[in-house]
Amino acid sequence: MPRYNNPRKTWRYSTDFKVKAVELSCQEGIQVQQVAAGLDIHPMMLSRWRKEYREGKIKPDGRKRVGVMKEKKAPSGEELKELDKLKRENTRLQKENDLLKKWQRYLSDRHQSDLDSSRNTDED
């Protein structure tokens, strides 16, 4: 039997990483293999983490909120009105900002041309 001088590298993952991986794999429509491939881990490792999570051996950190994404509810009429108002205000502010930028460029160009013309008169 061959002798190994250098043992293989054993990767250690944080509990937070394991919890996020498990919760990603528990989302509807997502397979364990997809999550494992995305995180570059073996699917059996993720399956083991899922089992440990169910058994309570892996627990999420109580200070952080880690949850499965929930369905979005349709916005109410009042929220739609507020959203529309904010969009209009955003458009108005963008136009105002563009106008101020154009005015600043105009003043800068005018100032530069004044400097250029004063240099030309000084050289003469």
Automatic annotation (TrEMBL):
Q: Which portions of the sequence form the region Disordered? A: 57-85
What Gene3D superfamilies does the annotation carry? Homeodomain-like
Top-level taxon in the UniProt lineage: Bacteria
Q: Which Gene Ontology molecular-function terms are recorded? A: DNA binding; transposase activity
InterPro entries, alphabetized: Homeodomain-like_sf (IPR009057), Transposase_8 (IPR002514)
Biological process terms from the Gene Ontology for this record are: DNA transposition
Would you identify the family this protein belongs to, as annotated?
A: Belongs to the transposase 8 family.
Protein known as: Transposase, OrfA
